[in-house]
Prior knowledge:
The protein is α/β, with parallel strands linked by helices. The protein has helices at 23-38, 42-55, 112-126, 130-138, 143-153; strands at 15-18, 59-61, 64-65, 68-71, 78-88, 99-108.
Amino acid sequence: MAKPKFTKYLSRDHIVGLKGGTRAAVFTELIDYVARERSVDAEDIFAAVMAREKVMSTAVGGGLAIPHGRLAGFGPPMVVLGICRENIDDYSSLDGSPVRLVLLVLVDYMDFELHLELLSSVAGTFLTNQALVDDLMRNLDNPDEVMRLLEAGAK
């Protein structure tokens, strides 16, 4: 059976333009968005995301960060793509490059295997394809094109 692609849980409505220029501001925007969409307490989402972030930065390089977490009672997975017009310079990226794309992956606490499969899909899609990140940055204002690019490139 084929492993699920992260794009299965991302819709054009979950592509969010971010205003924040700091990691904290971006997290707040994304977490508030998810809290409104899912009627989940923002503090619970923040705690799940920060628990992982404290272990190691989720800024993987090439302008991309992949914060993620598991929450009890969250329900179906949710993927949100935050796109920043300005660099997030205080997000400690593994390659030292500023972050512009933040892909938030959230799953139910009991979905450990699915969580790993979605992260694998994200990594396989982005870490081997810097051109995709560049294409996404050129299409910030076109969610339909962003989705098309992601669905075509998702592994």
